[in-house]
Amino acid sequence: MLHSAPIESDYTRLMPMLQRFTRNVFSLTRAAFVCGLIAVSLMPKVNAAAYSLPNDNNSLLGAVKQVQLVYEDTFAIVARRAGVGFTGLQRANPGIDEWLPGAGVSLELPTSMLLPASPREGVVINLAELRMYFFTESTEQVFVYPIGIGSEGRETPLMQTSVVGKIENPVWYPPQSVRDRHAAEGDILPRVVPPGPDNPLGPFAIQLARSGYFIHGTNAPIGVGQRVSSGCIRMYNNHVASLVATLPNRTIVRVIDQPYKAGWHGDDLYLEAHPPLEGALDHSQAVAAVIAATNDRDADVDWGRVVEVARTGSGLPVRITR
To answer: Does the active-site annotation cover 216?
Structure first.
């Protein structure tokens, strides 16, 4: 049974976004709108990205991909279809309307990233980039998942914990604080939500040793890649299903916060910057990350580019060596 205080429905957190969506699409024909909704429910499920783990001297994974949109596409549809997070897609494509980007528009997919500065074992959750890394026991592969995390005021805490259990078809027991918040908005939650499409935990919940915190699926996939929960980690349902199948109990789980990551790919040094969870983008922190990455290795760094990458915060790795 789940009595976790940090767990609540995504819908309340996402109402402002959904309201904006309604305003933006009202000019579309009813038929096109319905087709768009059908596309969300019928789109193919994309498994988590699997990368070959680079050697200890390198950190860059994958490559940025591009996708050309059709008329019905929105960022929410593209993110789900590509298996990336909503916010990550926004950061990589500034200035493009996320609800009506337009047919023929080309988007960059955030399918390349630097490994965080953390032990390459178990599960590493980097809050700032809204991603989870699962390092397989063979140490030959790393799986990367977009995640949703705690909203402002209900943050997911930094911690080192472990997996203590996996629950299939979990039952949700809304905490009284959550029921009170919903009631104040005219939404009366039941005391018990059984498994099914209305359950905000999705098909699986992974229980952590830190009391009250879970990694689980969701009934609102648009919240993956956003700060929408009351502290738990949200995943696409097909992603959490694949993770449950391969994640051993007692696996170490580290929750970190690294908005600036610097790492090598061959002889080139890269920098990846994400807006911090608190405060504004700060190039001084990016400089510190670059210095740490060059402690044991010389690099001809373009410091002007470092500042530019840090201030842009696109979430994409950028080469910063000349």
So the answer is: yes
